[in-house]
Design goal:
The protein is mainly alpha-helical and about 450 residues long. It has helices at about 1-15, 20-25, 30-60, 65-85, 90, 95-125, 130-160, 160-170, 170-175, 175-190, 195-205, 210-250, 255-285, 285-305, 310-340, 345-365, 365-375, 380-400, 410-415, 415-440.
């Protein structure tokens, strides 16, 4: 959880302090150009995330979940802390924005490796019949990271002047990532690797190239989770990052009114995600995921209609709806996707199928929606965007097989069917020839 908290804490802090960072690293007479340059650097991390998923997914299946998670949290906390120590443009010239890009790239690399390792780790340690509940805390903790980031930016902007914020106070939120990262590192050092990984290692079933093995044998499952991730990432980035920009840009709602309501929405999905995760342990992953997708299709439009009211109460109710809908989908999500793959290629498979959609639809969603809303004049465009993603993910969910309620041995037998089928098609002819030769003899 702390790995996800550090990741999304930095995400929120950078996004909310973007106007300040624009003056620190890209000062110019044109404030819009400075802001666009800052947001461009923000997007760099998303384009690096797939590389992190590939690299750390490979390492997670080769050297273990624990060792990979240690490297990931060190990289994330170190890169975020380093951002708080960077020289400004006035101090270092072009070196300052270049170092900022390097730090954001390292953060993206780390973020790309966090999910596959942590999801595999928790799913493989979870008690039988409770995998949905335990894994739901991973994505649920995203709400804590976003909340901490929002509160930090809100408090900082309230207690220090704009001059102090641009001079030195902007560094403080990034430096706060260090103690969070150290606590996470301490906890991960005290954990053993998962029984599933140790069993695969002892049995000698770990491939030399997990990425190649994953794509060769499990490409259908990888495409399945990519389709499921579509709603997950679009709902998160539209509901809890873009809405603030949407309210300010198109409805002229100040941050002082939208941020407290947004924090309430973030805490809502943190609290409710384990509830829906536990529900999926009882009734299955598919019913809960499909119900949440239908909920998005039905409920996202009324939520955005409430935003048009612009009052705090209406915005608060809208965020509570968004938080509940997201919790319903994210609660069973991690259990559902980890159960699609055998232990020997699980981290690598998740690294591929999860991070590529996040790269495209997470990093580019704010830009796409701002352009579409402005170009078409359709003020409810974000709602239509989420509904489209929900329809696609619903269709994918309805086609997937149910895996809830299976223990580790049964699970690997189910998800290993593709492997068995592949081997059967390759070996069947040789076995038939040997059988005929035996009959002749």
């Amino acid at each position: 959880m702390l790995g996800h908290v550090v990741e999304y804490y930095d995400f929120a802090v950078y996004a909310l302090l973007a106007p300040v960072l624009a003056q620190v690293f890209f000062p110019s007479d044109n404030e819009l150009n400075s802001l666009l340059a800052t947001l461009g650097v923000f997007g760099v991390a998303y384009f690096v995330r797939p590389l992190g998923g590939l690299l750390f997914g490979h390492l997670g299946d080769r050297i273990g979940r624990r060792n990979t998670l240690l490297a990931v949290i060190l990289l994330m906390a170190g890169a975020t802390t380093a951002m708080g120590l960077l020289p400004t443009y006035n101090q270092g010239g072009l070196v300052a924005p270049i170092l900022l890009i390097v730090c954001r790239s390292l953060q993206g690399l780390s973020a790309g490796g966090e999910y596959g390792g942590s999801a595999s780790f928790v799913a493989e340690h979870a008690p039988p019949g409770r995998r949905g509940f335990f894994t739901s805390w991973l994505h649920g903790s995203t709400g804590i990271g976003l909340t901490l980031g929002a509160l930090t930016a809100l408090v900082l902007s309230a207690v220090v002047s704009q001059d102090a914020l641009e001079s030195w106070a902007w560094r403080l939120p990034f430096l706060l990532a260090l103690p969070l990262g150290l606590v996470g590192l301490y906890l991960r050092l005290r954990l053993d690797d998962t029984p599933a990984f140790e069993a695969a290692k002892k049995a000698g079933t770990i491939p030399k190239l997990p990425l190649v093995e994953a794509v060769r044998l499990h490409w259908r499952a990888i495409l399945t989770i990519a389709g499921m991730v579509l709603l997950l990432t679009v709902s998160l980035y539209v509901s809890f990052t873009y809405v603030t920009t949407y309210l300010k840009t198109f409805l002229d709602v100040p941050l002082s009114r939208s941020l407290p309501a947004g924090i309430a929405g973030m805490l809502t999905f943190f609290v409710l995600a384990p509830v829906f995760g536990a529900l999926s342990d009882r009734v299955g992953r598919k019913p809960v995921l499909a119900g949440a997708a239908v909920g998005h299709i039905i409920g996202i439009y009324p939520a955005f209609l409430l935003l048009q009211n612009r009052s705090f109460v209406a915005i608060l109710f809208a965020y509570l709806i968004l938080g509940t809908l997201y919790a319903g989908y994210v609660g069973p999500f991690t259990a559902a996707v980890t159960e699609r793959f055998p232990a020997n290629v699980r981290a690598a498979s998740l690294g591929i199928g999860y991070q590529l959609p996040v790269c495209v639809f997470g990093g580019l969603s704010p830009l796409i929606l701002t352009y579409l809303t402005d170009a078409t004049g359709v003020i409810l465009m974000p709602a239509y965007y989420v509904i489209g993603a929900a329809v696609i993910s619903l269709l994918v969910t309805l086609l997937m097989t149910e895996t809830a309620g299976k223990n580790a041995v049964e699970l690997d037998a189910v998800v290993g069917t593709a492997h068995a089928d592949r081997l059967g098609s390759e070996q069947g002819a040789d076995e038939n020839d040997e059988h005929r030769a035996h009959q002749i003899r």
